[in-house]
Amino acid sequence: MLQELQLSLGIISVLLVVILVYLFFRVYKTQRQIILLGLPLGFLLLAISYFFLGIHLFYPFSGTLSYALMWLRVVTQTGGFLLIAISYLLAGRIKRETKLTIPTISLALVLSVTLAFGLLDISNNPGLSIIYQLNELFVVANLALLSYIIIFLIRNIQLSRNNSTGLISAPVAFTAFWIGQLSYLIWEFIRSDIALVGSQVARVSSLAIFIYIYYLASKEALSDDSGQT
Amino acid sequence: MTAGKRSKVDIYSAVLDSICREGGREGTASPTRVAHRANISYDRFLKILDHFVELGWVHKTDAGLEITLKGVKCYSEIKKTTEFLRRIGLSI
Predict the structure, then answer these.
(1) Residue B92 domain-assigned?
(2) With the C-alpha atoms ordered A16, A17, A21, A23, is the resulting torsion angle positive or negative?
(3) Does domain A2-228 have CATH number 3.40.1620?
(4) What are the domain boundaries of chain A?
(5) Could you give the ipTM of this predicted complex?
(6) Interface test with B, best of A22, A27, A37, A223 (most B CBs within 10 A)
(7) For residue B19, what is the domain's CATH number?
């Protein structure tokens, strides 16, 4: 029952994050700012991570394949959060346009991850199992990155008192990610099913909030259009 | 938080917005008024306008400038993405 629930939540996560990757690609394609690259690529890494998590659930333990899946799941997730945090770190500091095309970068990223997966699996090194001990450290790193983004967004709201409409949703979305990571960390220590499912529910909620923010932004842009005519 | 210099997208957005507000949907937008409203020099505006015509976003008519459906869609996309970025705290 638990595995079915996890799988369902995993599939929903992958679907939602793929939609988000597409939306962030569109944003980057329109705005062409180099700092925005971190968003589509960060969410693409998260999509890859959730995909590997899904496979990991199908094959709970099968030696080196399991280690390889776990390594990629953990590293791509932290890499994804890192890229998103870099976008926030550089926001307002760098204003440079770029002609880098998303399909090229995405293809390179996906190929690199596939190659890494192949190498990890072929290497057949029992030392790879260390990832199960390092996992907590990666989760702590994720929490730190997400904390940085949440603090950045809260300061942003404080600074833009005049035009703060709709700014609360993004920190809420990142807080849901944060709760998901914390819940996962709790599961690592006490192995409670509620904590594990809670982490996945929080993640799905976070992704859904991001899509909702895009919907609200589109609605507002459209209402402006009709106001002008 | 944001740097003072406008990006290319900011300028394009300002020009498209000015065309719409100056009667671009009816084909009567005056080029000088659009340049003035968008707060850019007339020379620069003419270069941007040529680029917009090339892209099929704007038509030159006897009565003035007319924004095409493609131009409206593009302007809408810029507004949508700018608003989305503002909402996720990444106004650039």
Answers:
(1) no
(2) positive
(3) no
(4) 2-228
(5) 0.89
(6) A27
(7) 1.10.10.10
Question: Which of B7, B84, B92 is the best mutation test for A, with the most CBs of A within 10 A?
Answer: B84
pLDDT digits (tens, 9 = 90+) for A187-222: 989 989 999 999 999 999 999 999 999 999 999 988
Question: Under an 8 A CB cutoff, do A31 and B5 touch?
Answer: no
- In this structure, what token pair is assigned to residue A55? 């496979």
Percent of chain A scoring above 70 in pLDDT: 94
- What's the gap in Å between the CA of A21 and the closest CA on chain B? 14
Number of domains in chain B: 1
Contacts 24+ apart (CB under 8 A), A188-195: A188/A135, A188/A136, A188/A139, A193/A2
Domain that holds residue B25: 8-87
Rounded to whole angstroms, how far apart are CA atoms A167 and A153? Answer: 8
Q: Which two tokens stand for residue A103?
A: 């399909």
B7–A contact, CB cutoff 8 A: yes
Per-residue pLDDT, averaged over B8-24, amounts to 93
pLDDT at res. B4: 61
Check residue A166 and give its pLDDT: 85
Scan for tokens 């009567």, then name that residue: B28
Which range scores top for mean pLDDT: A81-85, A193-197, B61-65? Answer: A81-85
Q: What is the pLDDT of residues A102-130, one digit of tens each?
A: 788 888 888 988 888 888 777 777 777 78
- Contacts of residue A36, Cβ cutoff 8 Å, sequence gap at least 6: A24, A27, A28, A87, B85, B90, B92
Partner B, chain A 99-158, Cβ-Cβ below 8 Å = 152-153, 156-157
Q: CA-to-CA distance for A217 and A222, rounded, in angstroms?
A: 9
Q: Distance, in angstroms, between B60 CA and closest chain A CA?
A: 20
Mean pLDDT rounded to a whole number for chain A: 88
Q: Give me the sign of the Cα torsion angle A39, A158, A147, A16.
A: negative
